[in-house]
Each structure stands twice: as C-alpha cells, then as structure tokens.
Write a structure and sequence with these properties.
Blueprint: E1 2-8, H1 17-22, E2 30-34, E3 37-46, E4 50-59, H2 61-67, H3 77-82, H4 94-103, H5 105-109, H6 116-119, E5 123-133, H7 137-145, E6 151-158, E7 168-181, H8 183-198, H9 208-216, H10 227-234, H11 239-257, H12 262-265, H13 316-331, E8 335-339, H14 345-351, E9 358-363, H15 366-376, H16 383-386, E10 389-393, E11 408-412, H17 423-434, E12 438-444, H18 471-485, E13 487-494, E14 505-512, H19 514-523
Parallel strand pairs: 8-9, 8-11, 9-10, 11-12
Antiparallel strand pairs: 1-4, 1-5, 2-3, 3-4, 5-7, 6-7, 12-14, 13-14
C-alpha cells in the first residue's frame, strides 16, 4: 500500500516543515512495525520549495491470514477468501489507516513543539493514493472528500488495460488537493475515510472504535452530509455501535448549533448508574427535581398518621403523571409525543393503556434516552408493543418535521429548563411547527416553594431551572402563546391546592381552536 503527502513552501515558510509536523526527519529512511507488517517512511524530495513524504506499507500476508482465522475476531471476508494471495498488499484499506495512526499519532493530534505555529496553519497539501478500493465509485469518493474542502481527482482503474471492454475495477487512483486544511485535519480525514471507502475492516471492531471515530471526526463529522454512511461503514455496519455513535454525534451537533458545551445539554440525568426512583418523587423529565420532599402533603411533611407508609400520599411526580394521563384520555388523543421524556416514566405509563397506539419520547440527553430504553426494556419488548413506542434524540429549540401529525404533546417540567431568551424558539417548534391538537404543559408553581421545609429560601427546586413562575406569570405566558398560535387554554392544579399559595404544580391544557384545526386537516 502506497501513499504520499506533499506540500510546497518558500524560504520564509519552507516546505520541509512537513518533516517537523510529521515528526519524521526527511534525511532518514525509517521503518515502523505494525500489527500486520512494516511501514516504511521516506522523502523522495525535501527542499524549501517542495517536500514529499511517502509511506509504503509492506503487509505480512501470513500475519494477516493468521489474525483472520476463524469467525468473530477475524479479518475481512476478502482476506479470508483469498488467503495468502490477494490484492490487500497493493490497495489502500483500513490497514493503511491503522499504520497512519501508528506512525503519525502526534501529527494527528496536532502536536509539534518544534513548529507550534505551523500546526494551526492551513498548508497547501497534495495527497496521492494510486490504488484505493472505492465501493461506490468516484462519485462516493467526491461525496466524502469534497465537503471537507478537498479538490478531488478519482480516476477509475481498469480491470485490464489491454482489455478495455472488461470495464473498470472497484479501485480508483486518488489525488486530493487543498490549501484550506491543516495537516492534522488531513490525516484525520484519511484515517476515517480510507476504511469507509473500502467498506471493510481487517481487525476486530470493538466498542472503543466509537471513541476513535468521534475523536478523529471532531470538527467535521457531525455536520458531514454523509455522516450516516461514514459511521455505519467505519463501524463495520454493527448496528448497536452505529446507533451509539449517531446519538453522540447528534448531541455534538446540537451543542454546536446552540453554542453550548455538550455536558450542558446532556445534563438531564444526574446519576446514570443509580437513576432516581419514582418513590423519591422524581419528575418526568428525569431531572430528579422532586428530591426536596415533594410528597404533596401541603406542608412538605408526612400525611396524617405520621410514620405510616401506607397512609402517605402518592409522590407529586406520580400525581403529575396521573393528571397528564387523565388529560390525554379526555382529549381523545391516541398518538402522543412526550417532549423532554427523560427517563421514560410517562412513556411507560402510557404504554399500559392500549388506547395510545403510538408514543414517541424525545429528549436531548443521550443518557436520559439510554435509561428510558433500559426502563422500558425495549430490547426485550414484544413486536406488537415495540411497534407502539419510539425514542429519539432532538432539541426543542429547533423545528423538527418528525414531530408533526400527532394528536397531543406533553411538556412535563420542561419549560423551566430553557433559558428565557430561547423560550420563543421552543414555543414555535411545538405550537407553530408541530401543532398537535392538544398540548399539556406542567411547571412548578414557585409560590408553593415556601411549603417545602427542606428547600432553602430563595432556591429553585432543581439546580438546572432557569426560572420558576408564579401562577400569574404562567397564565400570562400560556395566554400569549395560545393567542399567537391559534389555541385556547385552560388551567388545572396538580397536587394539593393550598388556599394561600396554590398547588405545587400548575398545568395548562392547550387545545387547537376549531378554525385552526380545520385548516390543519385541509393542509394535511
């Protein structure tokens, strides 16, 4: 397998800086052992005007076959089928990607103490690979590299030059050129996309391959138009790993679009291993919000018959969930969205009632969705039951066509986790774009906080709450949203309705007005 990387320069910024960036001196011919052979590094040319590094990967076909014996921890079908005589030593593949990572690990990470200023500077780069498997042809090669800033020349290699009527092989001669990329970016592109084009890996693909992909794809993979294909092929089409990678990539994309840190978005579950049990009064968003003693007694203490567990009223989280289910039944909804589903408590409750034929849980947090999937036992659920439920990742700060066409949507203890300046985006995404016939919104009543004996004065019920509304503020917000988007709204209490401070949770029931509902049906 053969690859060259070239750059140009001048006396001020000599091309030989490539040797510093690659950590390989142009005057030395070097050899590096890999799991499947030896990588030789030479510089055919190295002067101020032009510098070319050439890598020749000499594959030990015996080692390749030995490591590929048997099923499971084996190599690719091509290697197993052809045994010792095959095209693997001559065509770039995942083995070349492994060699790049082994030989140029510091360069891939963008580390160079000798020329630190050059690490961050784009270089005029030219990469040549004379024989590259391309399952998908030149069009796929261009589709993978051009969005990354490369000019691509991918010439098909004929099966036999003396017999043109035989047509082209699945190989191309590849030339990539760019003056917009750093060397580290270029190497990461090659590391990921070489095995993707080959559509085969010649070593065992384990769970740590997801981390390798995300590290190498940082900064470009989350927004690549062929993200799904790249992820699936890189992970050898292993469905579970591909799903895990796609979820993490979507979270990165949402964080970048929201100008937030990933950990700020993925904070809906505080303890992935232990979770928070319903008995503690956890709210339906998975935020552990009700750990301040939300037993809904009206005083934050135990009910009459103190100390008797059988007389203790249901936790507020359970009362809230029961109120939501009752409101959904009254609305006649059968297809329901749980927006901000968290650990999936409401989804689980709705699955128990056959009238709800489709239940979709949406959350921005991968960890929350993982716990919800575990809680619902999706991997062991029967076919009929599984057809009624879906979980997917999404942000309510953006419109999403997947949310359209449902009878009802629930926002249970969600709005208070949104920064006030971004609340209009959520309002439009739900009421303006998705437009279900019924929308249920629950949120804490801040006036009731004085009744929580364990909640310090002036503190919100959860550290992630951006605000908590009074009853008047909630009614004003709901009324404005309803008028703007063609809904009517009614309010109901959840939990004991204290004569002085009201209920612990307030719920608004939005109903699409008859006129607007008719327009929606005609448009559909």
């Amino acid at each position: 397998m053969f690859l060259t990387i070239s750059t140009t320069g001048d006396e001020k910024t000599p091309a030989t800086d490539l040797g510093f960036l690659l950590h390989k001196h142009p005057d030395n011919a070097q050899a590096f052992s890999t799991s499947y052979g030896t990588a030789h590094i030479v510089y055919p040319r190295a002067d101020a005007e032009r510098c070319t590094m050439a890598m020749l990967l000499e594959v030990d076909t015996s080692a390749l076959v030995r490591r590929g014996k048997g099923k499971g921890r084996g190599g690719a079908p091509d290697a197993a089928l052809a045994q010792y005589v095959n095209d693997r030593p001559y065509a770039a593949s995942s083995l070349l990607a492994v060699a790049l990572s082994r030989v140029f690990s510091s360069a891939i990470r963008g580390v160079c103490n000798a020329r630190p200023e050059r690490v961050r500077q784009p270089l005029p780069l030219r990469v040549e690979i004379p024989a590259l498997p391309a399952r998908g042809g030149p069009d796929l090669v261009r589709g993978l590299f051009e969005p990354l800033g490369w000019t691509v020349a991918a010439e098909p290699v004929a099966l036999d030059g003396e017999f043109p009527e035989w047509g082209d092989s699945r190989y191309v001669g590849l030339v990539l050129e760019s003056d917009r990329l750093t060397l580290a970016e270029a190497l990461r592109h090659l590391y990921v996309l070489l095995p993707v084009l080959d559509d085969a890996k010649h070593y065992w693909v384990s769970a740590d391959e997801v981390d390798k992909l995300l590290r190498a794809g940082e900064g470009w993979l989350p927004t690549h138009p062929e993200q799904k294909l790249i992820t699936s092929r890189y992970l050898a089409r292993r469905w579970s790993l591909t799903r895990q990678a796609m979820e993490r990539l979507e979270l990165v994309r949402l964080a970048e679009a929201d100008d937030s840190a990933v950990e700020d978005l993925d904070n809906a579950v505080e303890d992935l291993d232990n979770g928070v049990q319903e008995e503690t009064g956890t709210d339906a968003t998975g935020n552990g919000e009700s750990t301040t003693g939300e037993t809904a007694t009206g005083s934050g203490g135990t009910a009459a018959g103190e100390g008797a567990a059988e007389d203790r009223p249901a936790p507020l989280a359970v009362q809230r969930r029961d109120a939501l289910v009752a409101a959904l039944k009254e609305s006649g909804a059968v297809r329901v969205l749980d927006l901000g589903c968290g650990q999936g408590q409401l989804v689980q409750a709705l699955l128990k009632d056959p009238r709800f034929t489709e239940i979709v849980g949406v959350d921005v947090s991968v960890r929350a969705l993982t716990i919800a999937s575990r809680r619902l036992k999706l991997d062991r659920m029967g076919e009929h039951q599984a057809s009624r439920v879906r979980l997917f990742q999404g942000s309510l700060a953006y419109t999403d066509n997947r949310l359209k066409g449902y009878d009802a949507a629930v926002l249970s203890e969600v709005v208070e986790h949104v920064d006030l300046p971004r609340l209009p985006a959520l309002e439009y995404a739900v009421f303006g774009s998705a437009r279900p016939r019924t929308v249920l919104v629950t949120t804490p009543n801040v006036e009731y906080n004085v009744r929580w004996e364990t909640l310090p004065a002036g503190h919100a019920r959860h550290g992630d709450h951006r605000f908590e509304w009074t009853r008047e503020e909630f009614r004003a917000w709901a009324g404005r949203v309803a008028e703007l988007h063609g809904y009517t709204v009614e309010f109901t209490a959840v939990g004991p309705d204290d004569p002085e401070v009201g209920p612990p949770t307030q719920m608004a029931v939005f109903t699409l007005s008859a006129h607007d509902s008719t327009k929606e049906e005609k448009a559909a």
